[in-house]
Design goal:
Largest sheet: 9 strands, mixed
Number of helices: 18
Structural class: alpha+beta
């Protein structure tokens, strides 16, 4: 049985929060999730590490916030219907599964890296899904009931035993089919070929390049009999459905266009865990967990929709006035806002959640990104959206009269500027000018230069007031465009700014700033998970992944840097680059630039010394992470080596 079968999304929406009653916030949603949502709708997960074969600790957050009763003996129900009584002991705020857990772990062959997802179904009873590592698919052998554990009860058998008894397979290579006793091969065959597709799940850990694309596990793709079309639907816990483009390469299915919008909307972060359940017609439901082991509460509460709103798909090229994105708050799209702003004037008939400055035009993708911010933040004061031009980059930034009069201070006042992804703050004097508009100047220019804003960038100003003080959080949209015939303005002599969208289309990896050598492209998803899972890569830093070949580590010792990486992030000349290793000294190596081929690489004595000092071998995978904000071009080098069939980080 599917983990959430019988409790689909409709049940999760019994209590809708209307934005008319209160301003939606993360604290309200967390309170609603833990204090009002039916306990049978609550989940947590655990990754099997450490001494998991002897005991398991229920996540601290779940124990502290869960309002249901967890007795001294809890029941664990496995996918095959068996139920195990497990002793739960309390240690301060922790609940540890002890006596009985080892039997469960042994019977279901739990191994390090396995992921278990638990759903509370009442009366200290949890239903469990078991995912294998590194396949990220369910353990097939435990979906057919034949034998039972020593203390398991024979209840809730989900499959007709006659189906299993009649299963045949060819194991001896003779080509003859013979009936035989249950074996692992038969159970795998039964799971993929006879079990209802709507009972199937897979799990993904968010690591590496997860914000731009995500691949469906290879094992799921190879064995799944259902139809996965070129566009699949992803249904989040809050009921929203997103259309995602899929691309097929060999046996891989990669979620591309639309995935970035989804990952932004649901604030996916490194080490979040997503559980997918197929429900038919290329449609997947999912659960979203954060590293605490619990669900992200913010996205388990459904805002009440207007009567004419349907839960339809949200594609990443959808205009902002799509009915599926509207709520009782009458969210106004940038296009609607632009209509209400005639030469910088605002109509009084509606209260938009975003306002465009005169002359600011958004692409379809930018409109979607603005909507993601609106949905995430639900601003009390409408966003002010403007495009960077020569004046705002080198002189001052002006807020139009009608916006300033309605939402900003009516006299000169010092305000705080900040960036959502940085801890820095900038103070500026917000001045009221003669026609009633407001203007930022000196402090704004410091913000511009520090955050490397460029001409035609789109900035979204999130304005808030508290105790008479004004704060502006400035969001810079990711997909900015250069003016025709102009290149991005570089704020550094050596390290360049981000590439334009047109440049990104030239390389399938460029959009995410992850670049791969020819041999690195052959790394499997599981291998990439091992590599990126152990390397702590800072969000936003460009990365080049290279598999060391003989020419890199011996003989000529020459490593080529891809031309697109070089063109986007390095100066078009030869210069030094500082290579760092974790907890070790740095190596200053020479980057040689070849003008005709517009690419360069590492070679000669200093690169050879780096190889020898770090004892690099053929087959090692080097992840070159370009560190932003450094006065000198610096790369952190993460080295992974295959040990016993898996990549591990080498110190």
């Amino acid at each position: 049985m599917a983990l959430d079968q019988g409790h689909d999304q409709d049940n999760r929406t019994d209590h809708n929060i209307s934005s008319n009653s209160c301003q939606r916030c993360e604290g309200c949603d967390a309170h609603y999730y833990w204090c009002h949502l039916d306990n049978t709708q609550k989940f947590f997960f655990k990754i099997m590490v450490g001494d998991f074969q002897e005991k398991m600790i229920i996540p601290d957050k779940f124990v502290k916030k869960f309002k249901g009763q967890i007795s001294k003996v809890i029941k664990l129900e496995a996918p095959d219907g068996n139920k195990y009584d497990v002793q739960a002991t309390r240690d301060l705020n922790k609940i540890v599964l002890g006596s009985g857990w080892a039997t469960f772990a042994t019977f279901y062959e739990l191994k390090e890296g396995c992921v278990l997802v638990f759903r509370y179904i009442g009366d200290s009873h949890f239903r469990v899904l078991i995912f294998d590592y590194p396949s990220c698919c369910e353990k097939e052998v435990f979906h057919v009931v034949i034998n039972y554990g020593s203390n398991a009860q024979e209840k809730d058998i989900r499959f007709d035993q006659s189906l299993v008894s009649k299963t045949r397979c060819r194991n001896d290579g003779s080509g003859k089919e013979e009936s035989h006793q249950r074996c692992g091969h038969c159970d795998v065959h039964f799971y993929w070929h006879h079990m209802d597709d709507r009972e199937k799940h897979f799990v993904r850990l968010m690591i590496g390049n997860f914000r731009r694309q995500m691949s469906i596990p290879e094992k799921f793709v190879k064995n799944f009999r259902g139809q996965i079309s070129e566009v699949i639907k992803l249904e989040a816990p809050d009921g929203n459905i997103y259309d995602i483009q899929v691309t097929k390469s060999l046996n891989k299915i990669v979620l591309g266009s639309g995935w970035a919008v989804f990952s932004n909307a649901y604030e996916l972060k490194e080490h979040d865990v997503l559980v997918f359940r197929y429900i038919g017609d290329s449609h997947f439901k999912r659960l979203i967990f954060d590293p605490s082991g619990c669900e992200k509460e913010l996205f388990c509460v459904v805002m009440k929709r207007a009567p004419n709103v349907q839960e339809i798909g949200i594609s990443d090229d959808q205009s902002m006035d799509s009915p599926s994105l509207r709520s009782d708050e009458h969210v106004t799209s940038p296009e609607d806002s632009q209509e209400t702003m005639n030469s910088g004037s605002l109509q009084e008939t509606t209260e938009p959640l975003s306002v465009l400055a005169t002359g600011c035009n958004l692409t379809a993708m930018q409109k979607t990104e603005v909507d993601v911010l609106v949905k995430k933040i639900r601003p009390v004061i409408p966003f002010y959206i403007t495009s960077m031009n020569k004046t705002s980059l080198s002189g001052s930034l002006v807020f139009c009269k009608d916006y300033a009069v309605k939402y900003l201070p009516h006299e000169d006042q010092f305000i705080t500027l900040c960036h959502p992804q940085k801890s820095n703050i900038w103070v500026d004097n917000l001045k009221v000018i003669t026609d009633g508009a407001s203007m930022l100047s000196a402090g704004w220019l410091c913000f511009v230069h520090h955050n490397e804003l460029r001409e035609s960038d789109i900035c979204v100003f999130e304005v808030s007031k508290s105790d008479g003080k004004v704060t502006m959080v400035v969001h810079s949209l990711e997909r900015s465009h250069c003016l025709p015939g102009k290149k991005p303005v570089s704020q550094s002599f050596i390290v360049k700014g981000e590439a334009t969208e047109e440049e990104e289309r030239d390389d399938e990896h460029t959009e995410s700033d992850y670049y791969y050598s020819r041999f690195a492209n052959y790394l499997t998803d599981e291998e990439q998970e091992d590599i990126f899972g152990s390397a702590s890569i800072q969000l936003g830093n460009p990365v080049y992944v290279a598999v060391m070949r003989k020419t890199h580590v011996s003989g000529r010792n020459f490593l080529i840097i891809p031309s697109k990486f070089a063109a986007k992030h390095l100066a078009e000349r030869s210069h030094d680059i500082l290579l760092l290793r974790s907890n070790r000294k740095g190596w200053c190596v020479k980057y040689y630039y070849h003008e005709r081929s517009t690419r360069g690489g590492f070679t000669c004595t200093r690169w050879t010394k780096f190889i020898r000092d770090n004892k690099l071998r053929e087959g090692d995978v080097c992840v070159f992470e370009l560190l932003k904000g450094m006065s000198k071009v610096t790369m952190m080098v993460h080295v992974s080596r295959k040990v016993d069939g898996r990549f591990v980080l080498v110190g």
